[in-house]
């Protein structure tokens, strides 16, 4: 079985922040979070199904897709799965993570269960995933998902997370103010008024919620950690892409700012697989979001919806909130392939720093 190469992706970002600091709204490229939702199509998860259930599952998946564009999920027959090194027991189906990616060799087992239409519906969709998609499509830069285990996260802890969001908003405002005195470049800038300053929110999910079991399993797999007591927090961006995870009680300003700096900074490498993160299985109409245009950048000339220009803010939502209806998923074209020197310098610096950080955090890396 393929296994993740281990470690918190957030830790590795500490080495990358120096060359991917956030840019103000003028005179820089599309930030990572916006470029990701415009152009990084989510990779397909693979569902290995017994031969006796495959036809029914595919029919049910087609029925779900008929209500909107397809989910990023493909059904595999047992023979194909066995050829891929994933033999299956005859009475269960297994959900596998997408092949390859930044922090995984792919084909990790994420979830398993009985082959039933109800199980398929819960694999493809859930209330929390609908809410995540709604927020990202509404223009939010990052949704910090707090997965609660045992006792719910207390109000004081949530206020601490709210304070981190507010403090980061102040830093962005200071950078924008400083940029007023910077001479503009010769390149025509992207109009970012629709999504800048970046908005950040918080969503709480219970690990023991039956409807969110698959979502929690995907998040745990992305963080390469075993389930522990207490809460874990995950930053989500783009088309439902997760940037690793960390125990809630270990999340400090340095970790928080590292993730936010990376996601709100200029997209230095437009190849998705060369950027940190793992896709989640989320059904949403990502193609409904208009792409931004700039002369010579190859993007379609489309108008951008007017944004509210709000500063980063916290929006706490418990599991009792009823999310709006889901949209559907469709792939988009890939971005250009560029590899700036800054990216390679960051990658070289990140290698030795990640193990040191993991040792300091008291959390061992997964076995290779």
Count of spatially separate domains: 1
Note the run of SSEs as H and E. HHEHEHEEHHEHEHEEEHEH
The helical percent reads 25-40%
Give average pLDDT, whole number: 73
Quaternary organisation of the protein chains: single chain
Largest sheet geometry: 6 strands, mixed
Strand content: 5-15%
Structural class: alpha+beta
Low confidence ranges? 1-7, 13-28, 293-368
SS element count, helices: 10
* Tally of strands: 10
Structural features, described:
The structure is a single chain. The chain is α+β, with helices and mostly antiparallel strands and 368 residues long. The chain has one domain. 34% of the residues lie in helices and 12% in strands. The protein has helices spanning 9-16, 32-39, 51-66, 78-83, 117-124, 127-137, 155-179, 213-223, 253-264, 341-361; strands at 45-48, 73-76, 93-96, 109-113, 142-148, 200-206, 232-237, 241-242, 246-247, 278-279. The strands form two sheets. Strands 5, 6, 7, 8, 9 and 10 form a six-stranded mixed beta sheet that branches. Helix 3 (51-66) links the parallel strand 1 and strand 2 (73-76). Helix 1 packs across helix 9 (253-264) and helix 1 (9-16) packs across helix 10. It is globular, with a radius of gyration of 20 Å. The N and C termini lie close together (11 Å).
